[in-house]
């Protein structure tokens, strides 16, 4: 089936018509063409002595072919060419050429049929005008008849072809614009879905970050408080002075934990109106452990300068901790300082939980472009007191996420001596 481009998306017409009004229009045009061909056919057959009835019947059949113009425009034009010597089918030829030019028929076929139609009209015009001049006996110049025949041929061929080409091109342009609009709508919908997915991912990252912060703030302090309370129970009756000292330490650690929680919650409230993710980078989400979206974190927090105090708290809880610093350097970024501090803090917390009383060594190395930290504890001593601290298994996961988020390296695992080692290296930039 060959379409003219007039049909749009709305359907519901009979047979090959997609719209009812298109079918009505073609039936009306076919009726007009049939009447015109019947009159002209009667005149032609009467002139050649075949009787007007045959001409009327032939004209009705030929003119009705126009109803097929949308389905077979080439056939309609060929029928118009076939009856043109009988001076029939003016409406048939005009509408047929227009439909052919506006359809999706290859342009070379349109050009050939239009040329044939023009040539046929030219020959018929030359013959009819020559006969008319001979019958009238009027004096005319030699070029009058050819010139008038050319004008008639152009007038019956060029307008419908040019109009059809224009209408077809315009309809194809409108269809292209409609498809482009649909494509843009689909793209916008996909972008909206991706934006929602990224927002959901960012909210999940923010929840995980908050969970890490809560874990780091609470777990270490509470672990030390539990260790001190265990020691307090052991010496409460034997050594009241040590018990009082341990009780004071428990109170100090509880107050410190509450202070850090208040600071963190205050920063979260202050940044509640800030988008979760900074300038969203146009990079695709890649399947690597280090996420590129930088989440909003508080600028204030613990730093490497507070490691001495952190180690001192563990010593006060009865842990034998050796602390050493190699290299020189200071003034790292807030995220680097806070991450390094949290790694050491969580490693000491795990040592309190799983190796109470074991000797622990904390090393901090400041190097060119990076800072490294390592916390290693030995095996727990025999007969050591188990503080029975709960463990959710999220400490190492949180440390790894923190380090990888800054593009660092994190390694944790048991040692050959039966202890446990946590190592991390963070890039500090220039």
UniProtKB/TrEMBL annotation:
Signal peptide from the UniProt entry: none
Catalysis: reaction(s): ATP + protein L-histidine = ADP + protein N-phospho-L-histidine
Location of the DUF7134 domain: 15-153
Membrane-spanning intervals of the chain: 50-68, 74-97, 109-127, 147-169
Residues annotated as domain Signal transduction histidine kinase subgroup 3 dimerisation and phosphoacceptor: 206-271
Keyword Lyase appears in the UniProt entry: no
EC number from the UniProt entry: 2.7.13.3
InterPro entries xref list: DUF7134 (IPR055558), HATPase_C_sf (IPR036890), Sensor_HK_TwoCompSys (IPR050482), Sig_transdc_His_kin_sub3_dim/P (IPR011712)
Coiled coil residues, start to end: 167-198
Top-level taxon: Bacteria
Annotated GO MF terms: kinase activity
Keywords, ordered alphabetically: ATP-binding, Coiled coil, Kinase, Membrane, Nucleotide-binding, Phosphoprotein, Transferase, Transmembrane, Transmembrane helix, Two-component regulatory system
Record flagged with keyword Glycoprotein: no
Gene3D superfamilies, sorted: 1.20.5.1930, Histidine kinase-like ATPase, C-terminal domain
Stored PANTHER family: NITRATE/NITRITE SENSOR PROTEIN NARX-RELATED, NITRATE_NITRITE SENSOR PROTEIN NARQ
Record's protein name: histidine kinase
Organism: Streptomyces evansiae
Lineage: Bacteria, Bacillati, Actinomycetota, Actinomycetes, Kitasatosporales
């Amino acid at each position: 089936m060959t379409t003219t481009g007039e049909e749009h998306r709305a359907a519901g017409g009979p047979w090959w018509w997609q719209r009812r009004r298109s079918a009505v229009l073609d039936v009306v045009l076919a009726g007009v063409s049939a009447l015109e061909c019947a009159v002209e056919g009667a005149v032609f057959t009467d002139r050649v002595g075949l009787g007007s009835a045959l001409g009327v019947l032939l004209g009705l059949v030929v003119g009705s072919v126009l109803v097929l113009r949308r389905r077979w425009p080439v056939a309609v034009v060929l029928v118009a060419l076939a009856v043109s010597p009988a001076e029939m089918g003016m409406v048939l030829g005009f509408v047929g050429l227009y439909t052919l030019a506006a359809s999706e028929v290859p342009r070379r076929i349109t050009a050939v049929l239009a040329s044939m139609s023009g040539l046929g009209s030219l020959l018929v015009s030359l013959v009819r005008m020559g006969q008319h001049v001979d019958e009238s006996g009027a004096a005319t110049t030699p070029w009058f008849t050819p010139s008038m025949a050319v004008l008639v041929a152009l007038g019956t061929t060029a307008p419908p072809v040019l109009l059809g080409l224009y209408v077809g091109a315009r309809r194809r342009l409108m269809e292209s614009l409609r498809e482009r609009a649909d494509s843009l709508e689909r793209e916008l919908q996909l972008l909206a879905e991706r934006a929602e997915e990224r927002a959901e991912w960012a909210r999940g990252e923010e929840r995980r970050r908050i969970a890490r912060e809560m874990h780091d703030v609470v777990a270490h302090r509470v672990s030390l408080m539990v260790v001190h309370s265990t020691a307090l129970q052991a010496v409460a009756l034997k050594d009241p002075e040590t018990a009082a000292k341990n009780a004071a330490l428990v109170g100090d650690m509880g107050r410190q934990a509450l202070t850090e929680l208040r600071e963190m919650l205050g920063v979260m409230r202050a940044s509640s109106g800030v988008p979760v993710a900074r300038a969203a980078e146009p990079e695709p989400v890649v399947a690597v452990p280090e996420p590129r979206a930088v989440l909003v974190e508080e600028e204030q927090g613990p730093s490497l300068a507070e490691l001495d105090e952190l180690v001192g708290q563990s010593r006060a809880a009865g842990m034998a901790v050796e602390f050493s610093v190699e290299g020189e350097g200071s003034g790292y970024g807030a995220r680097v300082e806070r991450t390094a501090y949290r790694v050491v803090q969580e490693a000491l917390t795990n040592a309190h939980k799983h190796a109470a009383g074991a000797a622990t060594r904390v090393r901090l190395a400041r190097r060119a472009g990076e800072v490294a930290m390592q916390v290693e504890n030995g095996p727990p001593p025999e007969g050591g007191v188990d503080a029975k601290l709960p463990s959710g298994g999220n400490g190492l996961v949180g440390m790894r996420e923190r380090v990888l988020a800054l593009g660092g390296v994190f390694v944790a695992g048991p040692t050959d001596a039966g202890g446990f080692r946590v190592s991390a290296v963070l890039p500090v930039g220039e």
